[in-house]
Amino acid sequence: MPSTSPSLRSISRALSALALLGVTTGVVTACSDNDSATGRSASSSASSPASAGAVAHTDKAELHMIDNDGHRLAFYVTKGHGPTIVLDSGGGEDASYWKDLAGKLHSATGATVITYDRAGMGKSDAVPGAWQVKSAVSDLKTGLRQLGLTHGVTLVSHSQAGEIATYFAEENPRMLSGAVLVDASLPPLYTDEEIARINAASRPQVDAAKNDPDKPANRQLISIAESYVPMHKAYHRATWPSTVPATVIVSEKTPFDGSPEDAQRWREAAATFVKQGPDRTLITAKGSSHDIPKDRPTLILKEIESMVDAQH
């Protein structure tokens, strides 16, 4: 492997391993409440109450174990009326990431609110081998279908989940009424140059993770690294359907806080994505880290409510 350049070393210092490859949550920081907005355009098991110690649900959530392609996935459903909101967390996180927002969102909208553990996280079974985004899309689609939720879904996707959202929307546009993409990993970022920079900078963390491969976060990091380059070369060509409105919320600091060049590329990717199609809005969460749902929960709630209200 070639030696790491000063630029790559700066990326390594700026990011955790999962932020490099999985583009997951960063360190929670205190932030101001000011926002800026630009570009605003026109088969399931029997359900049971979620246990008190288990994860991202409201007090009314029910746990459904969904079977798909030989593994089981945990979906947490807080029943409501009318629209459905699905909260999808970033790399290395399970459904508990949304525990502070799910109940508030249900109370504010009256919607059915769903969180879930992706394969290998929380109560969901691990799947061996390299992480495949299309498998994650299949898991989400199967879960929603088995729950009888096949239209009118607002998808809220943070970080790495933006990749799942993009392919899900591309393949299943009629299931979605809209999406809120929260500092999401978006196709325009992944030029050959940026893929190479991120992949090279992540190698020390990936190698370290192999010392404890059974830890869920390490297991996910290793599996993502195995498929990272070809998967993101393909992702760069993915497109978002023009029929699905999207609000893109980008953090000011981005997951590349500490690497100004890469942080700028992240922000530019969000702006490019918004310009590529109709009914897309770009909002900058000023002062926020990549961890916008923790830093700026009021902003996230507001934008989800606005998307739901606009589409129903």
UniProtKB/TrEMBL annotation:
Q: Answer whether the UniProt record assigns the keyword Signal to this protein.
A: yes
Q: Enumerate the UniProt keywords alphabetically.
A: Hydrolase, Signal
Q: Name one GO molecular function term.
A: hydrolase activity
Q: Which Pfam family name is an example for this entry?
A: Abhydrolase_6
**Which Gene3D superfamilies does the record associate with it?**
alpha/beta hydrolase
Domain AB hydrolase-1 intervals? 85-297
Keyword field contains Hydrolase: yes
Q: Where is the signal peptide?
A: 1-30
Which protein, by its recorded name, is this?
A: Alpha/beta hydrolase
